[in-house]
Each structure stands twice: as C-alpha cells, then as structure tokens.
Design goal:
three-stranded antiparallel β-sheet; globular; single chain; 124 residues; alpha+beta
C-alpha cells in the first residue's frame, strides 16, 4: 500500500463502554465479525434522524423532517493516521480499506456533521 494515500476505513470491533473485555476477547469478536462480513457483506444499520427546519429559511417547511438512513461508517484517513490517531483505539483494531474509486462504485458517499454552537460546548 502506498504511504500517505487516504483510504476509506471501516474499523471494528468497538468495545462496549460498559464491559471489560480482554484483548483476546476483542480479537475473537473481530475475527467473527470479519467472517460474517466475508460471508454476508457489511451490515447496514437503520438510523432514524429528525432534522429540524432551518429557522432562517423563507420556505414553507414542515416542523420536522424524519428520515431513516441505512449506513456503515467509514473514515477517510491515511494508513499512518489510522494507526497513529484515536481511530483504532476507539473503533477497533480490525479494518477494511477501500480506495475512493472503489467506495464511489459501491455508492459510498461522504457525510458531514454540523453542530450547533451550544452542542459544541456540551450543553443540551
């Protein structure tokens, strides 16, 4: 693999925050997940989102838009960033990588997250 080239990575298994699993347990879980991915493909989990209307919009919009998206999460980073940053520690030591052309052919599209100023400061 070429150094410094950004790829889309899907990392697993993410350790539950309320459980104390050993590295051996996580490795076993990671191998089982990898086996299932190879047999059945990626699991696209449904997520319901509520999108409030833009208060500055002049459009006549409904009070709330609800959508259901099915997704698998990938992170665009270089291999060095993957191992040097927090991604592996947070999401797991197993990773599937796709280059941007492969990802586009599979219909993977980037998602951007925007936060309200209050959300960035941790208030609700």
């Amino acid at each position: 693999m070429v150094s410094g080239v950004a790829r889309f990575y899907h990392c697993f298994p993410r350790a539950p925050s309320n459980a104390s699993l050993s590295t051996c347990d996580l490795d076993e879980i990671g191998l089982k997940i990898l086996e299932q991915i190879l047999r059945f493909g990626l699991l696209l989990t449904p997520e319901e989102l509520e999108i409030p209307p833009n208060p500055l919009s002049d459009l006549d919009t409904p009070p709330l838009t609800r959508i259901i998206q099915r997704r698998a999460c990938f992170t665009l980073v270089s291999r060095e960033e993957l191992y040097e940053g927090p991604i592996i520690r947070q999401f797991g030591e197993f990773a599937i990588a796709l280059d941007s052309h492969e990802a586009r052919e599979l219909g993977i599209v980037p998602t951007l997250y925007y936060y309200k100023p209050d959300d960035a400061q941790g208030s609700s």
